[in-house]
Design a protein that fits this description.
Strand content: over 45%
Protein name: PaaI family thioesterase
CATH class: Alpha Beta
Distance between the termini: 31 Å
GO molecular function, one term: thiolester hydrolase activity
Keywords: Plasmid
Pfam families: 4HBT
Organism: Celeribacter baekdonensis
Largest sheet: 6 strands, antiparallel
CATH superfamily: Hotdog Thioesterase
CATH architecture: Roll
Number of domains: 1
CATH topology: Thiol Ester Dehydrase, Chain A
Length: 120
């Protein structure tokens, strides 16, 4: 994630993964706002990390990710992303995630991840 980062990872108060990105002008679109691709990449990274941990560190791939942009953010702000596992089956994970700019929601996502099991 050097291209858009560095993205910093920490634990939130509940022990979940928290990813943070200090945005700059390099993250701006033509309107002068943080580009949706940057926000989507941040969501994808936090979702993949939570999925990987939920799958006992087995590789996971994204089957589907729906992103809803509900706000905008200007370069220079710190974006924070969190994801939560909603359901796990034998080979699939269902997750929700959010990016916030302070206390204001910027984007929401839902994802389906597939656990890749190596053949023995």
């Amino acid at each position: 994630m050097q291209t858009i980062g560095p993205i910093k990872m920490a634990r939130d108060a509940d022990g979940g993964s928290l990813f943070a990105l200090e945005t700059t002008e390099a993250h701006a679109n033509l309107l002068g706002l943080v580009h949706g691709g940057t926000i989507t990449a941040l969501l994808d990274q936090v979702i993949a990390t939570v999925a990987w941990n939920a799958a006992d560190r087995a590789p996971c791939v994204t089957v589907q990710m729906d992103t809803r942009f509900v706000g905008a953010s200007e370069p220079g702000t710190r974006l924070e992303a969190r994801a939560v596992l909603r359901q796990k089956t034998g080979s699939m994970l269902f997750l929700d995630a959010e990016v916030v700019d302070g206390k204001r929601s910027i984007a929401l996502a839902s994802a389906v991840m597939k656990i890749i099991r190596k053949a023995m």
